[in-house]
């Protein structure tokens, strides 16, 4: 009986404590209603950021006349802002360091006592900040225009609820149907070529009436365009790249949006976009005749003598008629853009960002934007597009630049349009004292101006410039010479899809629709398939194989990634450049002579290769570095001291 009594007491004790715990848990459990407003952006957030503030954009009819409240441990409303439009609220939140991930309701109470709710979620971060490692000089990036690469799912080609429904592959400026799944399906092809990262042009929704296949006229910054696929397919692309040790770079646009963006129908503030009052006055008759476009005087960012009207014309003018210019000086817009970038990094697991039209937004904001991202992801990478052939302008935007105006950009990488053009000119021009190969030699000499030359991005071509094969007048040898040069320079390398099979735009050089031609084999029924090699010409197959050998060597070459660079002034139509690391030397020889020419190697003693056996990276042939070398034909020779390549 004594034992039975103790047993009963124990049961009662456990029962009481269980009930107490359940009551305690009930106090911390947050029931949510799962009803939603028109928009709350960002649509979710995470706990554990260094910056523990968050600003929510709330869009709902008459929401500006409500008072929001949150009852969730560790989340506090610091301030609520109303806009010009009564249909917006901007809510400043503070998220404590100890806040747990979970869902909760934001309750909006109106003056008449009615309430609306929105369930919001704070997620746990899937990766540590240090694991977001960006691209660098060891990477070769494959640039893709998704609509023109491969159509894996024809079912997502058309959506009747979108403004542009026509798909016409015969038309250079209409949609062709390529999608995210088409890229994912061919990742092994891209990896086999030696690429380590991909950069697709934007895949966010462009619900524009026409010509929006390129993706740069966003109408929703938080939505994947359904014609490209779903958010889940975008995540899968990133995951599949990670499995292959590759990175996904997202093309983002801080400068402008599409004219059909949802907020253009109901702008939250009087200065949400630049030139807004003028637009609102003239929007019923809006056209290229009406719009105040940018003067495109990008040098006003650096010019000590630039007038205020010219500065304003560059920053505040619209890029084109259909792309409203975002006003980053509006603090709510500034926060929106920064949070949007971080949301995509965290959601997709990005390996980098390419920022479009970098010199057009407010430059002080852009410095803050980069700083905010790099503060959260210290090993991340961002490259900005500065379409200038002037190294002074290119270098101005790079972190570490000693700028006269003391501007600090925080930006790791910018694009080297200058050196891109130098290589093309060097190969197209006849040799003379100031023409031909000397353009490469003197162009590379400008590296003294850059804070970090190896963090600048070089490319043969891209989605805005003529194909390199066209730029070089469809000369295959010159195209190989150019690609080899770009690949060996102390730079990050980017190559446009199709360069490996000599795609061209020669019928209409510079025409954007033609530059972005469909990749053969990406559509069912294509008679030529570059993925399998079926139907390619012998020259195309040879170029594809050349690219594969070149980039796969580059992938593991410390000399190319981070080695010392030394080059020699061109002489008699020959230019020699060496990249040197501790146990590896790579030598590039560019020869423009059609007839055999013998080179005295005594001039190159400082490379330290005397009596060394080198291997031709492309052909595999061995060569002994002695007193001289005879070059029998025009072309490039890429040699390495590495064995068994």
Word description of this protein:
This protein has 645 residues and is an alpha/beta fold. It folds into 3 domains: 39-125, Immunoglobulin-like (Sandwich); 140-262 and 328-424 and 451-558, Glycosidases (TIM Barrel), CATH 3.20.20.80; 565-640, Golgi alpha-mannosidase II (Immunoglobulin-like). Helix content is 26%, strand content 21%. The chain contains 16 helices and 26 strands. The strands form 6 sheets. The chain has an 8-stranded parallel sheet. A hairpin with a 5-residue loop joins strand 23 and strand 24 (622-625). The longest helix is centred in the first third of the chain and has 27 residues, at 2-28. Residues 1-29 have low confidence and may be disordered. It comes from Tenacibaculum holothuriorum. Keywords: Glycosidase, Hydrolase, Lyase. Pfam families: Alpha-amylase, Cyc-maltodext_C, Cyc-maltodext_N. Residues 143-554 form the Glycosyl hydrolase family 13 catalytic domain. One of its GO terms (biological process) is carbohydrate metabolic process.
State the helix count: 16
Total count of domains: 3
Summarize model confidence as the mean pLDDT.
94
Structural class by SSE content? alpha/beta
The whole-angstrom Rg is 29 Å
CATH topology-level name of the largest domain: TIM Barrel
Per CATH, which architecture of the largest domain?
Alpha-Beta Barrel
**Cα separation of the termini:** 85 Å
- Could you tell me the number of beta strands? 26
């Amino acid at each position: 009986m004594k034992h039975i009594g103790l047993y009963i007491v124990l049961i009662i004790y456990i029962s009481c404590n269980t009930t107490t715990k359940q009551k305690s848990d009930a106090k911390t459990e947050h029931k949510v209603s799962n009803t939603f407003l028109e928009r709350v952006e960002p649509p979710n957030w995470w706990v554990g950021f260094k910056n523990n503030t968050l600003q929510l954009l709330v869009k709902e009819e008459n929401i500006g006349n409500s008072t929001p409240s949150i009852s969730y441990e560790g989340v506090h409303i610091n301030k609520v802002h109303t806009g010009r439009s009564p249909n917006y609220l901007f809510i400043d939140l503070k998220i404590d360091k100890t806040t747990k991930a979970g869902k909760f309701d934001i309750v909006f109470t109106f003056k008449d006592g009615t309430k609306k709710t929105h369930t919001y979620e704070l997620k746990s971060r899937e990766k540590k900040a240090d694991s977001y490692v960006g691209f660098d000089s060891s990477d070769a990036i494959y640039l893709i225009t998704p609509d023109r690469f491969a159509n894996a799912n024809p079912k997502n080609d058309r959506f009747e609820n979108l403004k542009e429904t026509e798909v016409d592959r015969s038309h250079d400026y209409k949609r062709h149907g390529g999608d995210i799944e088409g890229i994912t399906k061919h990742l092994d092809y891209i990896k086999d070529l030696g690429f380590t990262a991909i950069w697709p042009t934007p895949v966010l929704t462009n619900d524009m009436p026409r010509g929006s296949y390129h993706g740069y006229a966003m109408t929703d910054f938080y939505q994947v365009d359904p014609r490209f696929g779903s958010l889940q397919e975008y995540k899968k692309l990133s995951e599949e790249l990670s499995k292959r040790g590759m990175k996904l770079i997202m093309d983002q646009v801080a400068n402008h949006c599409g004219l059909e963006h949802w907020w253009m129908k109901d702008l939250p503030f009087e200065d949400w976009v630049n030139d807004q009052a003028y637009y609102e006055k003239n929007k019923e008759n809006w056209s290229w005749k009406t719009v105040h476009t940018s003067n495109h005087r990008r040098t006003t960012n650096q010019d000590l003598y630039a007038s205020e009207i010219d500065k304003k014309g560059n920053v505040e003018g619209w890029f084109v008629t259909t792309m409203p210019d975002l006003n980053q000086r509006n603090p709510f817009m500034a926060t929106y853009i920064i949070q949007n970038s971080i949301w995509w990094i965290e959601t997709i697991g990005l390996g980098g960002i390419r920022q479009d039209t970098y010199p057009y937004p407010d430059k002080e904001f852009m410095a803050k934007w980069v700083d905010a991202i790099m503060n959260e992801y210290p090993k991340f990478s961002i490259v900005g597009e500065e379409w200038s052939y002037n190294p002074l302008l290119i270098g101005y935007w790079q972190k570490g630049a000693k700028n006269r105006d003391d501007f600090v950009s925080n930006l790791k990488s910018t694009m080297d349009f200058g050196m891109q053009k130098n290589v093309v000119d060097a190969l197209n021009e006849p040799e003379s004292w100031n023409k031909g190969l000397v353009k490469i030699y003197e162009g590379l000499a400008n590296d003294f101006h850059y804070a970090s030359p190896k963090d600048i991005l070089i490319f043969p071509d891209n989605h805005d410039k003529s194909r390199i094969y066209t730029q070089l007048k469809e000369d295959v040898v010159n195209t190989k010479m150019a690609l080899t040069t770009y690949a060996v320079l102390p730079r990050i390398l980017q190559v446009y899809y199709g360069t490996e099979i000599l795609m061209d735009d020669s019928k209409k050089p510079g025409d954007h629709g033609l530059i972005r031609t469909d990749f053969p084999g990406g559509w069912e029924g294509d008679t030529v398939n570059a993925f399998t090699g079926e139907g390619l010409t012998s020259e195309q197959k040879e170029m594809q194989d050349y690219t594969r050998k070149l980039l796969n060597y580059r992938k593991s070459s410390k000399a190319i990634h981070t080695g010392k660079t030394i080059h020699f002034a061109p002489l008699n139509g020959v230019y020699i450049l060496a990249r040197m690391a501790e146990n590896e030397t790579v030598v590039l020889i560019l020869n423009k002579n059609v007839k055999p020419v013998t080179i005295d190697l005594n001039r190159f003693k400082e490379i330290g290769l005397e009596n060394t056996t080198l291997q031709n990276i492309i052909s595999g042939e061995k060569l002994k570095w002695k007193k001289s070398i005879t070059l029998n034909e025009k072309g490039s020779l890429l040699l390495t001291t590495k064995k068994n390549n």
